[in-house]
Amino acid sequence: SMAQAGAPAFAIGHRCQDSHGSRGTVRYVGGVATSKNPETVWIGVEWDDATRGKHDGMVTCKDGSSARYFTCAMGAGSFAKPAKLDAGIALSDALASRYVTLDAPLLAPNREFAGEPCVVNTRTSAGTDSTKTIEFYGEMQIRAHQQIDGINKVALRSAGIACAGAPGTLHKAAGHLEHLDLQANLLSSWRDVAAIAR
């Protein structure tokens, strides 16, 4: 499932993406006449790539009747289960996951390697084999350089950002930023854009 805890719900007009990175706009949320189970919730998507889908928002039932759920260009529409789509995350959550605080638990604690030093085989410009020693840089050293409060320019391209997030949390995480690159995300509301700009 691509859905994440705390992720925005699917709503008509919002943006979404699939596991392949194809993006589209939610045009319908609910049951579909051709589904085996009428209680199953489907997301009707109009894909940005008009060749990504299978129809134009209308389905044809076994009895020959048809049911239209939304309208788009032929081949741009499809229905997907919510678990197969990503409705995105809040900017505040994206910042929190990308810029980990110094007191957060270690995921990859620094390790001491016994025995011989770790090396990588290389080839010199003269064509002879050589080795170079690998120096491991610890998680805490990297983390120290990535503290959000110490930088004023952030790029979060294609990060699945769909909304601003809680105003207090967003202001605390991003209030000092001067440059924010959010290219190729899932923002669909000018209200969220304004909240981010504030």
Describe the protein in words.
Helix content is 16%, strand content 26%. It has four helices and 13 strands. Strands 6-3-2-1-7 form a five-stranded antiparallel sheet, with no helix packed on it. Strand 1 and strand 2 form a beta hairpin. Helix 1 packs across helix 3.
Low-pLDDT windows of residues: 1-6
Protein structure class = alpha+beta
N- and C-termini, Cα separation = 33 Å
Which whole number gives the mean pLDDT?
Answer: 84
Amount of helix = 10-25%
Give the SSE string.
EEEEEEEEHEEHEEHEH
- Please tally the β strands and state the result: 13
- Tally of helical segments: 4
Radius of gyration: 23 Å
Give the biggest sheet.
Answer: 5 strands, antiparallel
State the shape. Answer: extended
SS strand fraction: 25-35%
Strand order in the largest sheet: 6-3-2-1-7
Key phrases:
disordered N terminus, single chain, alpha+beta, two-stranded antiparallel ribbon, 13 strands, five-stranded antiparallel beta sheet, 198 residues
Brief overview:
The chain has 198 residues and is of the alpha+beta class. Helix content is 16%, strand content 26%. It contains 4 helices and 13 strands.
